[in-house]
């Protein structure tokens, strides 16, 4: 059963690494060992587990009890008695079309899910594990528990081929990691993506990422400033800016975003 999670296991690994960096999980809690024996025992003692996907079993039964602020980060799973929106729902309520990219890559062990915000808005994710990473990053952006700030913002035309490439590229290398989603709002659809340049490797000590939507590129980091505000960003945030430049340069966007963007710190 463990091999059925596919790429979801990498998403879970990134989630755990970020949780440690954001001080929501003790460093000694990782690596998280999920053995076949644990899974068999868990499924055997939880009658409702047959209704859950593999990633739900791992996320809601194994990770939640190790994570502080778990209710804020891990949304209620199906079957949990919490009212209101903002809960994980499977695609039963939103039927994916046959040619939808989320349907093409569908894995029932890490299924496409949506997080409903209200009656007209919901986020649709290609997998539950991707939704968890996205939710962690978004929630921590508004949390005071760790220094976390937007440092730069840039904008390009939403139809720019370079931007479209950054939005759609697989980005599965060792120097970058990405998760994306679609925001459905009263019939309109907005594609969004988080591109991480730090915070997903075992030896990373800071989290740094870009949020992309509608041609906007916003750069965030937890790195502490190494120089005064009068210095260039490359001197103030040498690790983050070096990583941002490397990834954006690969897509030809370094000049527009970093050199032509607006500094926000």
Q: How is this fold's topology laid out?
A:
Elements: H1 8-21, H2 36-45, H3 54-63, H4 70-73, E1 88-90, H5 101-104, E2 113-116, E3 121-125, H6 128-141, E4 149-155, H7 161-168, E5 177-185, E6 188-198, E7 208-213, E8 216-221, H8 233-236, H9 238-250, H10 254-259, E9 262-263
Antiparallel strand pairs: 1-2, 2-3, 3-5, 4-8, 4-9, 5-6, 6-7, 7-8
Helix pairs in contact: 1-6
Describe this structure in words.
With 265 residues, the protein is α+β, with helices and mostly antiparallel strands. The chain has two domains: 144 residues, no CATH class; 119 residues. It is built from ten helices and nine strands. The protein has a nine-stranded antiparallel β-sheet with strand order 1-2-3-5-6-7-8-4-9. The N terminus is likely disordered.
